[in-house]
């Protein structure tokens, strides 16, 4: 693939050039807000920061979800972590984003902390972490998000352009992954040459660690165990609202049958004889996990958003991963690969369900 090596200090200029050369009409990029990090939509090149913010190990929202409904012709550039870019790619397939209007730029991510944890320990954590730093911080009681511990897709290899910080040093490789990405880099008049950012050994090491961490998570061996896990759920639907790939315009659980109140609740009680409150607690989560089973990118935004601190990372990404493995499907890997549930092949599950 074609790419160029840049100094970390040149990243701000690289991002500004995307706007100055009119490669995109706007950029969505991480930026500092006090001790924290959030996303900002920028149209003025002078509002772009140093560029180093893109590597800060803090997670607020999955930025892929910010592009839901971006079917306009104005072109947006999204600079985000691999799980966020993968979510955007799934939304392209679901016709929620016009692919020709989105330039997707992924950056290496060794793992992230919850926003509040990062804000409280900004100086200790810093702007970049590697495996050694992660272990050091763990010894101090500061651990990366559980979703990151079981993530096997941390390296920038999806989207149109990858920004690879291969050794955590002061250099990055900016490489085109698609013709759109190469066209964008050519427009910036960068001196492009062949670059290899495959990093097979690093990927294998990450995948092994993710598998081991996932194996250590508690398992649900029965409906009773799942009900106990979800016991404190108040069906606030925060997990749905922050999920980047949950996009229905009218959710079943916002309708009377899915969210019964007053007379509807009484009618349901008359049918069943007794109704647990809040109603549809288990039904809600079983429906949602089915709904996102092919497209979940395991970002963990659902767990972060839960006001009752239910570790939903142990439920959604773990279960959906089993479905994805069944279909040999990696969400967000390739914009041209159809989502399993949108296609049908006779006897496609014959071998897997025996």
Give the distance, in angstroms, between the N- and C-terminal Cα atoms. Answer: 41 Å
What multimeric state do the chains show? single chain
Integer tally of domains: 2
Count of distinct strands? 10
Instruction: Provide the succession of SSEs.
Output: EHEEEEHEEHHHHEEHEHHHHHHH
Q: Any idea what the radius of gyration is?
A: 21 Å
Beta strand %:
5-15%
Q: Give me the side-by-side strand order of the main sheet.
A: 3-2-5-6-8-9-1-10
Largest sheet: 8 strands, mixed
Please tally the helical runs, counting DSSP H or I stretches of 4 or more residues. Answer: 14
Uncertain segments are: none
Coarse morphology:
globular
> Strand pairing plus helix content: what structural class?
alpha/beta
- Portion in helices: 25-40%
Question: Would you summarize the structure shown here?
Answer:
This protein has 354 residues and is of the alpha/beta class.
């Amino acid at each position: 693939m074609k790419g160029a090596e840049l100094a970390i200090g040149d990243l701000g200029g690289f991002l500004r050039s995307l706007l100055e050369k009119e490669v995109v009409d706007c950029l969505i990029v991480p930026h500092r807000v006090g001790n924290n990090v959030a996303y900002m939509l920028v149209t003025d090149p002078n509002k772009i920061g140093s560029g180093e913010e893109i590597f800060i190990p803090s997670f607020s929202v999955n930025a892929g979800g910010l592009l839901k409904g971006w079917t306009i012709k104005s072109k947006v550039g999204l600079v985000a972590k691999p799980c966020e870019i993968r979510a955007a790619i799934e939304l392209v397939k679901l016709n929620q984003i016009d692919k020709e209007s989105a330039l997707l730029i992924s950056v290496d991510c060794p793992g992230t902390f919850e926003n509040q944890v990062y804000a409280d320990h900004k100086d200790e954590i810093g702007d970049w972490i590697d495996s050694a730093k992660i272990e050091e911080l763990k010894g101090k009681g500061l651990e990366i998000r559980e979703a990151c511990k079981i993530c096997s897709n941390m390296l920038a290899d999806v989207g149109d352009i990858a920004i690879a910080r291969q050794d955590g040093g002061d250099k990055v490789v900016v490489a085109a992954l698609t013709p759109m990405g190469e066209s964008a880099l050519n427009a910036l008049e960068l001196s492009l040459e062949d670059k290899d950012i495959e990093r097979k050994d690093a990927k294998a090491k990450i995948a092994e660690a993710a598998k081991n961490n996932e194996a250590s998570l508690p398992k649900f061996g029965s409906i009773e165990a799942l009900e106990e896990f979800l016991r404190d759920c108040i069906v606030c639907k925060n997990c749905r609202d922050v999920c980047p790939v949950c996009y229905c315009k009218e959710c079943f659980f916002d309708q009377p049958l899915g969210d019964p109140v007053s007379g509807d609740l009484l009618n349901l009680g008359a049918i069943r004889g007794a109704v647990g409150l809040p109603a549809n607690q288990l039904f809600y989560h079983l429906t949602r996990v089915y709904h996102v089973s092919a497209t979940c990118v395991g970002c963990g935004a659902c767990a972060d958003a839960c006001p009752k601190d239910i570790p939903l990372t142990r439920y959604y990404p773990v279960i959906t991963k089993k479905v994805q493995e069944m279909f040999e499907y990696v969400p967000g890997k390739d914009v041209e690969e159809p989502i399993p549930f949108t296609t049908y092949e006779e006897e496609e599950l014959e071998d897997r369900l025996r």
